[in-house]
Design brief:
By secondary structure, this protein is α+β, with helices and mostly antiparallel strands. The chain folds into two domains: 210 residues, Bira Bifunctional Protein, Domain 2 (BirA Bifunctional Protein, domain 2); 49 residues, SH3 type barrels (Roll), CATH 2.30.30. The strands form two sheets. The chain has a seven-stranded mixed β-sheet with strand order 1-2-3-7-6-5-4, with helices on both faces. Strands 11-10-9-8-12 form a five-stranded antiparallel β-sheet. A hairpin with a 2-residue loop joins strand 8 and strand 9. Helix 4 packs across helix 5 and helix 4 packs across helix 6. The protein is globular and about 50 Å long. The N and C termini lie far apart (43 Å). InterPro entries: aa-tRNA-synth_II/BPL/LPL, Biotin_CoA_COase_ligase, BPL_C, BPL_LPL_catalytic, Transcriptional_repressor_C. It comes from Borborobacter arsenicus. It is an enzyme of class 6 (ligase).
């Protein structure tokens, strides 16, 4: 089966560039923008050899996994454009719900519990969890094109057939979860779900609706968390994400702390100490 766009996506002007193997889908997307591409371009592959995660971490995508990047060219403020990561997380979770058979969610030592009935939960700021383990990651990268426009590459990597074992957190794949789903089927659903959620986002004007939907899927909400921020660890209870999608904690002193960037740990790991 070849990669294809959902009919809704194609009808709204999204386009597709598919590869058998790439270095980095994000790098290709940003290069296309510098070459004059107007955006709404999906770059996809089942193998990625030099992808990146947050904070420069490597993110390899072996054969059969999904590496997808959506290039958006926008004139909105980059602070608003950064919230497209939350649109991506919602879209991927919606797509997974559509293509993966139902199953039991269990509590994991460093992940969500599925207590609100979600099989796939969203871990702030950019992970999708299944059974408390990391199933997918999202990375946004941007480049200024001129005084009015910027390119935003929204990278989405999903463990379809394999997951990394040499990582300091639980990870999983759709194959391990017993899902009979390939990368092409998942991408078809993802392109459809993105079209729905980007309409809701509406250039940032609908961010409140995105935030509400995201919180309905939030991993660890109301539980004990530890967040590593610039070498320090902030501990407390995960209260919400605010109107700017910052992570909001009530710390051990009862104070509200808003965090724009950091690594989040839940449950037993939070209690033992985020390393």
């Amino acid at each position: 089966m070849a990669f294809t766009l959902a009919p809704t996506s194609a009808s709204e002007g999204f386009r597709l560039e598919a590869h058998d193997s790439v270095g980095s889908t994000n790098a290709i997307a940003l290069e296309r923008a510098r070459q004059g591409d107007p955006g709404r371009l999906w770059v996809v592959s089942k193998k990625q050899e030099s992808g990146r995660g947050r904070r420069g971490r490597s993110w390899a995508t072996p054969e059969g996994n999904l590496a997808a990047t959506l290039l958006m060219v926008t004139d909105c403020d980059l602070k608003i454009a950064a919230t497209l990561g939350f649109v991506a997380g919602l879209s991927l979770a919606d797509a997974l719900d559509a293509v993966v058979p139902g199953g039991r969610i269990r509590i994991a030592p460093d992940g969500g519990s599925g207590e609100r009935g979600n099989r796939f939960e969203l871990k702030w700021p950019n992970d999708v969890l299944a059974e408390g383990a990391k199933l997918a990651g999202i990375l946004l990268e941007s480049a200024v094109l001129d005084r009015q426009r910027a390119a935003v590459a929204i990278g989405i990597g999903v463990n379809v057939v394999a997951y990394p074992h040499d990582v300091p957190y639980p990870a999983t794949s759709l194959d391990v979860l017993g899902a009979n789903c390939d990368a092409e089927t998942l991408f078809l659903a993802l392109s459809d779900a993105w079209s729905q959620n980007i309409r809701l986002w509406n250039g940032g004007q609908g961010l409140g609706h995105i935030r509400k939907r995201w919180l309905e899927r939030a991993a660890g909400l109301g539980g004990e968390v530890a967040v590593r921020v610039d070498g320090d660890v902030v501990r407390g209870v995960f209260e919400t994400i605010d109107e700017d999608c910052r992570f909001v904690i009530r710390n051990t002193k009862g104070e509200i702390v808003r965090i724009a960037a950091g690594d989040v740990h839940f449950g037993a790991v939070a209690s033992a100490g985020a390393q």
